[in-house]
Every structure is written in structure tokens, then in C-alpha cells.
Amino acid sequence: MKKSLLLASLALATSLSAAPISFDFKDPKGVNAIQFQLDSLLEPIVGTASGVSGVVSFDPAAPATTTGKIVVTADSLKVPNATMTGHLVSEAWIDAAKNPEISFELVKLDNVKTSGTTTTADATGKFTLKGVTKEVSLPVKLTYLADALEKRTKPGNKGDLLVVRGEFTIRRGDFGIQPGKNEDKVSTDIKLSIAIVGSAPKA
After folding, report:
1. The pTM of the whole model exceeds 0.90
2. Is residue 196 situated within a structural domain?
3. Are 17 and 24 contacting, i.e. CB atoms less than 8 angstroms apart?
């Protein structure tokens, strides 16, 4: 009887510890943003996309099972020059009116390694821009911070945080963004840098 109770308790503890946690990346503080960089010959351009949302399911006991999708509103893309921002979101470039979302959907994680609160891996996913979807790969770092939500927001807000970091490069021509044009002023390569925080409140 005691052995059966012990086995049942262990099974319950294992199932509880293996439960994935759902993290919401729509940041209530409005800090989350993805940086993009086009380092052309004549005009290096750096901008941000602030309209970040999405949900990632992360299991601290099994990080390799991570799933999720991050979405950015296309009309939130901005560069320091207002006229250039207007061109960027226009029909001739990313056409934000017709393609309001830019997204990355995780397909799998390979080479997963965890040390303390941080997991590193090679992520493969489906990246969609201007209505075109391509498979991309990138190294990512996932930092799981248990019971840290109130440290980032305010006392009494119980919950966990997940910080996602990574970088990858795309070619604008692959997504139908002015292929072969203005290459001296607008780089053919676009580098994207991700450093965003998701929260999982607890009741």
C-alpha cells in the first residue's frame, strides 16, 4: 500500500513538473520590440518594430518541446526618418495595409542545451513577411525566470517570465521587397535582432 502511494505521488509530481507554461508576449509595459538593420553602402539604416505579440509554450523540464508563434504588426515598423518610415510601410515596400502581420512560427529546436535558467538551441521556423513564407534557422537563447513577474512589473503580480533572444538575416528580394533595386542605399540583407519578454501570470 505504501509503495503504491509512493509511486502515485512520484507520478503526480512528474506530471506537474512536466506541464508546459504558456507565455504571453504582448508586453503590458510596451517595451518589447524587434530591431532590424540594413547596412548598405551609402545609408546604414536601423529601425524597430514595436507591435509584438504571440504565445510561446515552454516546459522548464523539457525545453526541446517548446512551441509558439511571435507576431509583429507591420505598421509598427519605424526608422528615425519619418519619410523613410512612410516608404517602408508603403505598397512599394512591405505593404503593411495588405499584409498587416509579420510572423515567426517555431517548427523545432535542435542541439538543445540547458545550464541553470538558460537554454540555448538552434531554432527552425516559418518566417512570413509581405505574404511570403520561408523557412529560417537561427541560434536562440531562452531564459526562464520563475516567480520574476513582480520584479518586472509590481509587487503582488505573481508569475514567471521567459526571455527570448536571437538573431537572423533575410534577403529582402526573397520576400518581394524591391528585389535588385536601390542596393547602394538599401541593403539586400536585413538583419533581425530579437530580445523580448513573455509573461505567465499565476492566480
Report:
1. no
2. yes
3. no
